[in-house]
Amino acid sequence: MLWRQPAWSAVSILSLSVGFATCFLLLGFLHFSLSFNRQVPQAERIQLVKYRPNLKSNANWSESSYAPLRDAALRSGLAEQASIEVALNLPLRHAGHLHDARLRAVDPALAAIFSLHAVQGDVQAALTRPEGLALSVSMAQKIFGVMPALGQLVQAGGNTLQVMALLPDPPSNSSLQYRALVGSNSLVWPQTEREKVMNWGLARIWLKLRDNADPARLQAFLQAETDRSSPLAAARLGVMAAALGGRKPVDIALVGLPELYLDPDLEDWGKFQPHGKLSDAYGLSAAGLLIMLLATINYVNLATMRTLQRQREIAIRKLMGAGIGRVAALFLAESILAALLAMALGLGLAWLFQPLLGNWLERDLGSLFNPAYCASALLLAIAVGIVAGAYPAWVALNVHPAQPLANRDSGEKRTGLNIRRALTVLQFGAAIGLVATATAITWQTWYASHADPGFDTTHLHIIGLPGKATAQSRKAFLEALRHEPGVQSAASSLAAVGGNLGDRIFRFYKNGDSPMLSYEAQIVDSAFFQVYGIQPLAGELFSPQRDQGKARGVILNAAALKSFGFNKAEDAVGQTIRNAGREVVLGVAPDIRHHSLYSKAGTIVYEFDDGSASGAWPACVAL
Q1: Which residues of 585-599 are buried (b: 16+ CB within 10 A; e: fewer)?
Q2: Local structure of residue 218 (DSSP, 8 states)
Q3: pLDDT band at 115 (very low <50, low <70, confident <90, very high)
């Protein structure tokens, strides 16, 4: 029957396949989000320590916390194992080629916490020996190709490491993502940097609790340890006490591994691993179900019209002895077959468009195409086929043989006609809902792509410099760039505009009798505002033409005026704000987007680069 009516079959099956493909992908994304970290054995016992420094003007929770809390958790007796995780940002070099392996230093206990078992080699040796290195299987293939990776030597940061373990690639829905791991006593992590981190520096801290241990008790213990020993503990008694308003200088909390991905406190924290919003996942799933409903109702209406056209066939079947069950089974079988064919085609479409959706959502959804999920999709197709074929089968059962054989159309009964009218209205309602959803998404996309960042992005390029770059090397690099053909100008800043939230630094400032608060600071050189084409709202900005003998001072952005008690930009120029010393406000710059649209433009104090700052300095080059 489907083969004899190719036009009807193509329309009905293609529309169903689009609905199935969309529903498969969007419901799969919901499953992906809800099952995040669920594959880790005893995931409910694994906790991440997060912290929030309340002295910042825009205090947010962070995935990182004070590294000494690792040892404090073990001392409490409530944690069975603990490990830090620190990004080293060193590429691996082999055979003259550099590879971005996102190298991370961890404690050997991490393997036990996450039940990491080596595919080849010894993971404990790789994380305990100074020259040890553990690679994921995909990273090893990228570096060494078909060569055996175990025992191979690679260079990182001027040191030689030996591959001692190959680890399975982490699932895409895991908060522990790794390509290359070294131990916390590795050669590539210098002792001085390690001591900085362990002396109340920041790191990701993973804990595995003992059986029946209470996370609330451990959280209270870590909070008390922080209140007593952290560098900011004295703030509760000092001049910054008024700014706290009764809060602690730093809040410490634990979040369980199964809840980590959807933790609302960490929605905007993407330094290590992106986080999801449950409302987004449910919203996309609702859109998928809406499309599926639209396709199903469309099929029911088409199948019903075809059933009315087949009244003579139905009448002859009944006269030849076909019973109610036989006629109903025929129409249900046709509907189920059409749904299964549509699902098979829909799975193909989903496979083709999965990379596009994954790129849009910034998630790897390749794991959706597993036997269990595909089998569930086929069961869904059978269910949809039964539901969609139920009404056409009911219409067929109500066909009286005498009327069609006498060339009289038996038509639909009034009840059936009302049902089909209701389905048509529902179909139009679903279509309107789909159009409204698509319009909202398109509108938001247009807004995001046309949002004014506050400067002209045309011909701007960002080059990240190594973390060990000195002031002299940065200056020499910029001078060399300025002499390159096609380079108009170059400037450096401590954090690239549009960079990660984790790249921000903060300074303490106050004005007059107001409490001293922590504000975001952007350290820039004299050419920064010129390269970005930013003009002052009042006063003057740093520039190469400015007399360097003058007081360097600071620049405020427009959002900082209210924070420092100024009514308008002109009122701030020439005023003094306090830091470690006294800084003169040279000018006021307009608000520009240093971060994503998810972050509101907050108070920013621009400081002049005097060559003393360390760390990775991105260079912004205007071509």
Answers
A1: bbbbbebbebbeeee
A2: H
A3: very high
Q: What one-character-per-residue DSSP string does 398-444 give?
A: T--THHHHTT------HHHHHHHHHHHHHHHHHHHHHHHHHHHHHHH
pLDDT band at 234, cuts 50/70/90?
Answer: low
Average pLDDT of the residues in 396-409: 67
Report the SS3 class of residue 367: helix
C-alpha 454/C-alpha 594 separation (Å) is: 9
Residue with tokens 């760039």: 481
Nearest to 536 by CA among 560, 504, 520, 558: 558
Is the CB of residue 280 less than 8 Å from the CB of residue 247?
no
**Pairing mode, if any, of strands 180-183 and 153-156?**
unpaired
109 pLDDT tier (thresholds 50, 70, 90): very high
Q: Measuring CA to CA, which residue among 198, 195, 85, 184 is closest to residue 127?
A: 184
Average pLDDT over residues 433-452: 86
Residue 596 near residue 434 (C-beta atoms within 8 A)? no
Report the amino acid identity of residue 188.
V
Q: What pLDDT sits at residue 270?
A: 46
Q: What is the DSSP string of 126-169?
A: HHHSTTEEEEEHHHHHHHHTTS--TT-EEEETTEEEEEEEEEPP
Contact (CB, 8 A) for 592 and 532: yes
pLDDT over 90, % of the chain: 36
Looking at residue 57, its pLDDT comes to: 57
Q: β-strand 582-589 against 554-557: which pairing, if any?
A: parallel
- Of 517, 557, 559, the C-alpha closest to 538 is 557
Residue 86, classed as helix, strand or coil, is strand
Question: For residue 138, how many other CB atoms are within 10 A of its CB?
Answer: 12
299-356: pLDDT as tens digits: 888 888 777 777 777 777 777 777 777 888 888 888 899 899 999 999 999 999 999 9
Q: Count how many Cα atoms sit within 13 Å of the Cα of residue 379 in the half-sphere of its side chain.
A: 6
Q: Flag the least confident range among 161-170, 318-327, 532-541, 560-569.
A: 318-327
Amino acid at 417: L
Which has the closest alpha carbon to 617: 459, 453, 454, 497?
497
What are the Cα distances from residue 331, in Å, to 5, 149, 326, 374? 15, 59, 9, 25
- Please provide residue 188's backbone torsions phi and psi, each rounded to the nearest 5 degrees: -85, -5
C-alpha span between 170 and 165 (Å, rounded): 15
State pTM to two decimals.
Answer: 0.74
| Rounded Cα distance, 133 and 90, in Å | 13
On whether the CB atoms of residues 114 and 107 are closer than 8 A, the answer is no
Q: What percent of the chain has pLDDT over 70?
A: 87
d(C-alpha 426, C-alpha 289), whole Å:
14
Distance of CA 250 to the CA centre of its chain: 25
Please give the structure tokens belonging to residue 160. Answer: 């030689």
Residue (of 260, 256, 210, 211) closest to 44 by Cα position:
256
Decide the pairing of beta strands 180-183 and 202-209: unpaired
Q: How far apart (Å, rounded) are the C-alpha atoms in residues 58 and 289?
A: 38
Residue type for 410, please?
A: S
How far is 310 from 517, CA to CA, in rounded Å?
A: 79
Residue that is written with structure tokens 């984790």 in the block: 502
Each residue of 354-377: pLDDT tens digit?
999 888 887 888 888 888 888 989
